Amino acid sequence: MHFELPAPHHILDLRMDDGARIRVRQHGDPNQPVRVFLSHGNGFATDGYFPFWRLLLDRFDVIVFDFRNHGWNPLADPPNHTYTQFARDLETVHHAVTAQLGPKPTVGAFHSLSARTAIKYAVEGGWLWDPLVLFGPPNVPPQGHPLYEVMVKFDHRLAAWAQSRPQRFASPHEMADVFRELRAHQHWLEGAHELMAQAILHQENGSGDWVLTCPGELEAGVYLSNIPLQIWPHASDFGGPVKIIAADPTVERPGIPAQTSKILSETNGFDYAYIPGTGHMLQSEKPEAIYRVMMSFLASCGLISDTP
């Protein structure tokens, strides 16, 4: 399968409060009454999630953007690559899109890093969405919880991997082969590895090498900053309805985020579903199944009148 990204209707080149640039793209049908914002996980980029968000294009005004130092965005100087800044950026992006494209009912649909950022913003007193959909938020349980030390070790392993991973490649195909070799990414749809590789690399002037847009040390820093963040919210902490859609915690070797998403949801009152047979990058594996769950949730919120 070959995925070809459509050209955006509009590109908003936004400046954050510290001068960093975030390039927001409008896709889908701008005349639809409901808008959906989408973003990505740590070290990835939203164009790589196209196998999922392509399913939204006919019935929503679709806004995609990458967090600072990822995807379409230049490296900020200084990077200010922290959850505190990510949360401020999320607010800036939402307000700028609303101001420039007009207000309408809005859904947040965020994976991993962006999901945790949306949680942080919401529980600290801000609410930007009509409903919020969180894909696999890898929150660290409180100290003393049986999974706390497991999650801490997991984040340290990811940080070590991010710092040691190759930073430059002869072509995106080389990066795609790296993805294919990772056990966690072996069940992605055909063509999804190439798509994500293209989304997270840019070609360096001079050398012609393809390099990671988000440097490994910044990616590693996010994994390590997950640990002290200590956000383990209740559904009642949010200003509106929230749905958690996560990877399968029942498989033989479930991912740690799949386990923590299940526990967070069941103990703290969240509307929750898992997608059978998926890992943490579930949007690259079973996008149609995720789409059906998300549409059912949006229908329950009164934003759409029918489900697939």
UniProtKB/TrEMBL annotation:
Domain AB hydrolase-1: 36-292
Superkingdom classification of source: Bacteria
Pfam families given in the database record: Abhydrolase_6
Source lineage: Bacteria, Pseudomonadati, Nitrospinota/Tectimicrobiota group, Candidatus Tectimicrobiota, Candidatus Entotheonellia
Gene3D superfamilies: alpha/beta hydrolase
InterPro entries named in the record: AB_hydrolase_1, AB_hydrolase_fold, Carboxylesterase_BioH
Name used for this protein in its record: AB hydrolase-1 domain-containing protein
